[in-house]
Write a structure and sequence with these properties.
Order of helices and strands: EEHEEEEEEEEEEEEEEE
Shape: elongated
Number of helices: 1
CATH topology of the largest domain: Jelly Rolls
Largest sheet: 6 strands, antiparallel
Number of domains: 2
Distance between the termini: 58 Å
Number of strands: 17
CATH class of the largest domain: Mainly Beta
Helix content: under 10%
Length: 210
């Protein structure tokens, strides 16, 4: 280290030695101070000198994880989005809403032929659905969870122009539970849809259960 007054240097052996005249007023490198050896010095700058690499560390240990560990589980990716390209008229009975446009079906858990989504992974799911309204007809579209109504969208149909209604919510689903859409019975009800996909149904897994 440099002694008070910056007149001497303490070497690694503990002895004191005077600062060479050529170093006075300059910045002295740490290597020079510690080893007592001359180091490249420029006025106002320190030339850094890289030391030799250290010895390699010990090898890491191998951990045997069980096959049912989370480290071995594939990511649980579930998402689908479907839509209709044509309208649907009401009938004297309830109608399951079917779709003819598949936009996304990650995981393959939505059956386009039956119009049913079957839960494979338990967790919290984001669910959204929309419906176009036919002027002069009402909309009453139910979201069915394993055969029971959990939510719906409704429109009186009194407007002379086409409305759209939509809804979204979160549901805690268990394996084998199903989701699908149902149009209320009655000829006063109808759904409008065309190539702009006014009537749609989308679900994705937000938070899987651990």
């Amino acid at each position: 280290m440099i002694s008070p007054g910056n007149k001497t240097l303490a070497t690694s052996s503990g002895t004191q030695r005077p600062i060479p005249a050529r170093l006075k007023g300059n910045v002295i490198s740490r290597r020079y101070i510690q080893a007592g050896q001359p180091a490249g010095v420029q006025r106002g700058k320190v030339q850094c000198i890289t030391g030799p690499p250290g010895p390699p560390g010990p090898p890491g240990s191998i951990v045997n994880l069980p096959q049912n560990s989370m480290a071995f589980q594939p990511p649980q990716r579930v998402a689908f989005s479907v839509a209709r390209t044509r309208s649907l008229k009401g009938s004297f009975k309830y109608q399951k809403v079917l779709f003819d446009k598949m936009l996304v079906n990650i995981g393959g858990h939505f059956n386009l032929k039956s119009g049913i989504f079957t839960c494979a992974f338990p967790g919290v799911y984001h669910v959204s659905f929309s419906a176009g309204a036919v002027p002069g007809r009402q909309v009453n579209l139910d979201l069915m969870l394993s055969g029971k109504v959990v939510a719906d969208v409704y429109n009186t149909g009194k407007n002379s122009y086409r409305d759209m209604v939509s809804r979204s919510l979160l549901l805690q689903l268990k394996p084998a539970e199903t989701l699908w859409l149902r149009l209320a019975k009655g000829r006063e009800y109808a759904l409008y849809s065309d190539h702009e996909l006014q009537t749609s149904f989308s679900v994705f897994l937000l938070y899987p259960d651990t």
